[in-house]
Amino acid sequence: MKIAIAGAGAMGSRIGLMLHQAGNEVVLIDRWPDHIKAIRENGLIGEFEDHKVTAHLPIYSPEEIVDGHANVDLIVALTKSMQLEAMFQDIQPIIGEKTFVFCLLNGLGHEETLAKFVPKENIIFGTTTWTAGLAGPGHAKLIGSGSIEMENLAPQGKAFTLEVLEVFQQAGLNPIYSSNVRYSIWKKACINGTLNGLCTILDCNIADFGSLSIARNLIESIVGEFAAVAEAEGIELNQSQVIQAIEATYDVNTQGLHFPSMYQDLIRNHRKTEIDYINGAVWQKGKNYQINTPYCAFLTQLIHGKEELLKAK
């Protein structure tokens, strides 16, 4: 399968590398000049827990995608939420009538953006529990295992979605076909809405956060706000199940030593975060439904304050 990774940061590098190793034709697309330069000169370095590999993959900036590039079968969307529309605006030359988009972005509200570029029957939504980090430009650190959940947005897309599932299975990405991906997206948003912002503000990894005496109270409060807003949109979150999933990440043998993506973006790289598409989205939706979300509102503003202090770009 010919696959473009739109947003080849830490997670995009991991998924692109594993798909490439399984024999697919993979093209990386990213905006970070140093990352592009490093991969072109030295290949993409993937540092797994017990070995290291180097893959020589083509990589372009979105502006370099021109009509001469052939259409791809699948675009895996892994940009930051606030970059999604601009990315797809630039890469339209590789989007054909039969091109599908698999959205694995964190956060809420991406369906409307993608529907501007491809029909809804060509959209797959999903979530992932895989983790990744960048040790530097062109160098991905790939710790632990994970899975990917996927479901076609419209019934007409199921046949191709099952083909994608098979491709991801061959790549060892542990895909699962979902019958209710919207629930999973909200559940994942809860995980990100607690661990991302809180670890960033508290300057700690997941295990360190989980060791705090205040951890349970904080996650219960934030998950409660997500659940109230989700219910207004017709999705009934099982709060106990969600909290259990969050607390499972504290294990140092799985994800506990990981610093969430928001921490990596803001604290390490002084980049702006996706907070407006996670806690910020719940805050804004809550206003629309007249639901009070003080924890999400406060955390959103704290992250924006930290962005200002660090002069994030």
What's the SSE pattern?
EHEHEEEEHEHEEEEHEHHHHHHH
Question: How many DSSP H or I helices?
Answer: 12
Tell the overall outline.
globular
- What is the subunit arrangement here? single chain
> Describe the biggest sheet?
8 strands, mixed
Number of domains: 2
CATH class of the largest domain: Alpha Beta
Let me know the CATH homologous superfamily of the largest domain. Answer: NAD(P)-binding Rossmann-like Domain
Q: Strand portion, in percent?
A: 15-25%
Unreliable segments of 5+ consecutive residues: none
Structural class category: alpha/beta
- What is the fold named in CATH at topology level of the largest domain? Rossmann fold
As a whole number of angstroms, the C-alpha radius of gyration is 19 Å
Please, could you describe this protein's structure?
The chain has 313 residues and is α/β, with parallel strands linked by helices. The protein folds into 2 domains: 2-179, NAD(P)-binding Rossmann-like Domain (Rossmann fold), CATH 3.40.50; 182-309, Orthogonal Bundle (N-(1-d-carboxylethyl)-l-norvaline Dehydrogenase, domain 2), CATH 1.10.1040. 43% of the residues lie in helices and 16% in strands. It contains 12 helices and 12 strands. It has helices at 10-21, 33-42, 84-90, 111-114, 158-170, 181-202, 206-210, 215-232, 239-248, 261-268, 279-289, 294-309; strands spanning 2-6, 25-29, 44-48, 52-55, 59-60, 74-77, 100-103, 123-128, 133-136, 139-142, 148-152, 175-177. The strands form 2 sheets. An 8-stranded mixed sheet has the order 5-2-1-6-7-8-11-12. The chain has a 4-stranded mixed sheet with strand order 4-3-10-9. β3 (44-48) and β4 form a beta hairpin. α6 (181-202) packs antiparallel against α8 (215-232) and α6 (181-202) packs parallel to α10. The chain is globular, with a radius of gyration of 19 Å. 46% of the residues are buried. The model has no long low-confidence stretch (mean pLDDT 95).
